[in-house]
Amino acid sequence: MQMRLGVRPSLAELGRGLRVLMACAALAVSERASAEGSSISLRWSAPASCPDVEIVRARALALAGPDVAVEADAQVTELASEFRVVLHVRVGGTAGERTMSAPSCDAAAEAVAVVLALSGTSAPPPPPVAPPIAPAVVVLPAIPPPPPPARPVASTSPDEKPGRRPYVRVAVEGALDLGTLPVATYGARLRAALLPRSDLALGVSGAVWANQLGYANVSTQGQGADFSLLTFDAFGCYGLLRRRTLELSPCLVLELDRMSATGKNEDHTGGSSPVWVSLGIGVEGRWELTRNVGLTLELQGVVPTEGQAFVITNTAGSPVGTVHATSVLAGRAYFGPEVRF
Fold first, then answer.
1. Number of domains the chain is built from
2. Who's near 216: CB < 8 A, 6+ residues apart?
3. Which of 112, 239, 332, 337 is deepest in the core (most CB within 10 A)?
């Protein structure tokens, strides 16, 4: 049995040998291209591991067509994971600059050779005499995307701001009633409203009215009654019209009425305190003096769901006369200052 011992060449040694063969072939082609009138002047600055300037220039001449005249300056920089080339090219009176990146210095040299060959002729280059090691990667500056179209901004009132929380309005108002008591009377009302948004108000109010003395429609004026009235409202208003500091809002009203009548009879004294529900509609005007202070004026029309009549009776229980009957439609007016919290 015979045994043969040998040494297997490493990949690095094969690469160096291949590079020497390529350099010899490129120099031979370069001499032929120079004879055809092509001229490529190259200043080459690169790390020591890169091909030298003559190999790159010969490769460019091998790829270029006849009568090519190019001047170039190439600066190769080794980064963490790539090689970057800044190439300045001048052809006749035209100069240009290009930046390229490649995964290896051999690939960067190949990319420079291709660019120089294409810079001097418009015809496509002939097939390469040696296969390229790796394709060149050209890095172009990124073009930023166009900005999105601006969205229209809806106009807002002074009260309506992004992220605004609900707020409360409280008012102390003078009041006027016509149709509920025997004659027109005055009173006072306390009102509080919550505004979850600037054009909607939900609230409650309570009013107390001045007492009145009514008499029966009989000849004896000593027979009558003393009346007092309390009203409680739940309402909702919608800001329909807004002009700077002025606001106009229609309102819906649900009212609870309590009237006390104490009889004043020469023979007998009695009384009653009926309670009933009324429905109403109104309109409220508001004038904003400052951001937190304003004046309000509200007009209402109220219809009781059940009519009320107050009758004087004698000791025998027989009716003597009607002292007062509520109207089928009562009118209300309220006016006063309002504070926002």
1. 2
2. 223, 224, 311, 312, 320, 321, 322, 323
3. 112
Domain with 98 in it:
15-138
Query: Do 207 and 304 fall into the same domain?
Result: yes
- Are residues 128 and 173 both part of a single domain? no
**For 135-144, b where at least 16 C-beta lie within 10 A, e where not — what string?**
ebeeeeeeee
pLDDT > 60? residue 285:
yes
The answer, yes or no, to whether residue 173 has pLDDT greater than 50, is yes
CA angle 114, 119, 120 (to 5 degrees): 110
Closest CA to 65 of 24, 22, 26, 36: 36
Asked if the structure places residue 159 within a domain, the reply is no
As given in the structure block, the two tokens for residue 235 are 């309402």
pLDDT in tens, 23-39: 555 555 555 545 456 78
Q: Is 20 left (phi over 0), alpha (psi -120 to 50) or beta?
A: alpha
Residues 33, 57 contacting (CB under 8 angstroms): no
Helix (H) or strand (E) holding 119: helix 105-119
Mean pLDDT of 201-208: 96
Rounded Cα gap, residues 264 and 318, in angstroms:
15
Which stretches does DSSP call E strand in 246-308?
246-264, 271-272, 275-288, 293-304
Distance (Å, whole) CA 114 – CA 111: 5
Neighbours of 225 (CB within 10 A): 25
φ, ψ for residue 98, nearest 5 deg? -145, 140
The full 3-state SS of 25-72, as one line of letters, equals HHHHHHHHHHHCCCEEEEEEECCCCCCCHHHHHHHHHHHCCCCCEEEE
